[in-house]
Amino acid sequence: MQEDHDRDLDRLIAAVTSGERIDWAAENARRPDLVPLLEQLRVTESISVYHREPQDAPALPMSRWGPLQLMERVGQGGVAEVFRALDPRLRTEFALKLLRPGVGSERRILDEGRRMARVRHPNVLVVHGVGRHEGRAGLWTDLIHGRTLEASLAANGPLGADEAARVGLDLCRALAAVHAAGLVHRDVKTTNVMREQGGRIVLMDFGASAER
Fold first, then answer.
1. Would you please indicate which residues are annotated as catalytic (active-site) residues?
2. Which helix (H) or strand (E) holds 46?
3. d(CA 130, CA 117)
4. What is the mean pLDDT of residues 155-180?
5. What average pLDDT does the chain have?
């Protein structure tokens, strides 16, 4: 019905304008008749997120790490921090995971990057390099625009049966690629699975992985 069509579009336009998170995969599944328009809205959202200035962003520990310019901190844990970083030469943004100074083993994060780099699959995070600069070891990867499965579940509740099956199949494909590279992930959990805007599932964080 035209009324439902207009109401759904108005709702999504308002969400994009306000910066509200949108599960595009769920929206596409719910309204397949609107997929072309939804894709245009998703692109518009991506552009607005890219240009939106972060509010009250914490001070960065440094401005550069090797060839990369640090833009903002996007995550942190007990032993590492994750930054959105720009390679000015390529004009491309990456996610940069840096080991905290004096915490943990540098070899661990470098080994993690080397293990991840052996896997090439659409559902596995791509590693572009590892190194040590400015006194800190780190690795840089594709920058995924989305949120973890943990955050998605917290915001939207449990997955429906069909959606859970799709996520499970994507993770099975990712793990098959990991195993084919001679690795065992050992830490598959909702915080290590990203759902990209558009619905792609990406397995991350090989810190606990091991050789088979």
1. 187
2. helix 35-51
3. 9
4. 93
5. 81
